[in-house]
Design goal:
2 domains; alpha+beta; 14 strands; 22% strand; eight-stranded mixed sheet
């Protein structure tokens, strides 16, 4: 029964991520779905989660409020902490058993309270009893294998790459969700509130120094204004004033140009409720210098 529920859950998750663009609300995961008349919840109050209908854990979760310091290892795998400090806690024993049997799990990572990014299948591939943790790898195959990868270099490097790719996606999605949340899910320039049309724009690009994925290095922008900001058609001064490139101001085209761009000249951007989330003035000044040159 466990294997059937596990496969059904993976299919259900795939459908949910297609609907919700990868980011899943906790309510969806807690409500779950029905399998042969039984409700299957895919996340719960504990980080290591086993639905009542199953014998072994189905998912592991890292939350913003977690007391455990989950992280990624130098070789790009996830380090998942024990439940408590007792290696023989039932939850830890459950993960040890799925590791020994090569059984796939789901990994949920909380980006902001109530919103999760999922990765599956993931496999427990090692254990550090002294460090009170398990080593977890993202995979693209449901094939059941031994928990250890020491004798299979190809699998090791594939899983390392896939886990690393998930880590990058996690950082990108987390940045977007945190920035949009700070701006109350609206464009900082035009107040558009359709989340599916909003992006988190970096003030300083993430590949440059000081381009960290933090809220104060971001702006919540609709897709049109994000593109205009990236191409230096729009600038934002250190005092949060919107400026439009001179040639665009002088251009005559149509209502989109007039009301979507020209109208914004000398307006102030919408700022987050918490001052700590306001755009960093030094980053804005550096970006604004580039705008003036353009």
């Amino acid at each position: 029964m466990d294997d059937q529920i596990r496969v059904a859950t993976f299919e259900w998750l795939k459908h949910q991520t297609e609907i919700h663009d990868d980011v899943l609300h906790r309510d969806i995961l807690e409500n779950g779905f029905f399998f042969e008349g039984q409700r299957i919840t895919v996340i719960g109050a504990k980080g290591i989660w086993k639905p009542k209908a199953m014998q072994l854990p189905l998912s592991i979760t890292t939350t913003a409020e977690s007391p455990y310091d989950d992280s990624f290892t130098p070789d790009d795998f996830l380090l998942y902490r024990y439940r408590g400090t007792d290696p023989n806690h039932p939850d830890n024993r459950g993960l040890r058993e799925v590791m020994s049997k090569g059984i796939p799990l789901i990994y949920f990572h909380s980006m902001i309270k109530g919103l999760y990014l999922a990765a599956w299948p993931v496999f427990i591939i090692g254990e550090d009893a002294k460090g009170l943790s398990f080593k977890v790898a993202v995979d693209d195959s449901l094939k059941i294998t031994s928990g250890t990868l020491a004798e299979d270099p190809a699998t090791y490097y594939r899983r390392s790459y896939l886990t690393s790719t998930f880590q990058v996606r996690l950082h990108q999605k987390s940045f977007r969700e945190r920035v949009l949340y700070a701006y109350q899910n609206q464009c900082a320039l035009c107040k558009l509130k359709h989340k599916e049309l909003l992006d988190a724009a970096h003030i300083i690009p993430d590949k440059k120094e000081y381009g960290q994925p933090i809220v104060s290095n971001g702006l919540s922008l609709c897709k049109i204004h994000h593109a205009a900001f990236d191409k230096f058609i729009i600038g934002v001064s250190p005092d949060y004033t919107i400026k439009i490139r001179k040639d665009i101001l002088e251009e005559t085209d149509g209502p989109m140009l007039k009301h979507g761009l020209q109208f914004l000249e000398n307006k102030k951007i919408i700022l987050p409720f918490h001052k700590k989330d306001w755009p960093d003035r030094e980053r804005l000044e550096e970006r604004f210098r580039q705008f003036r040159v353009a």
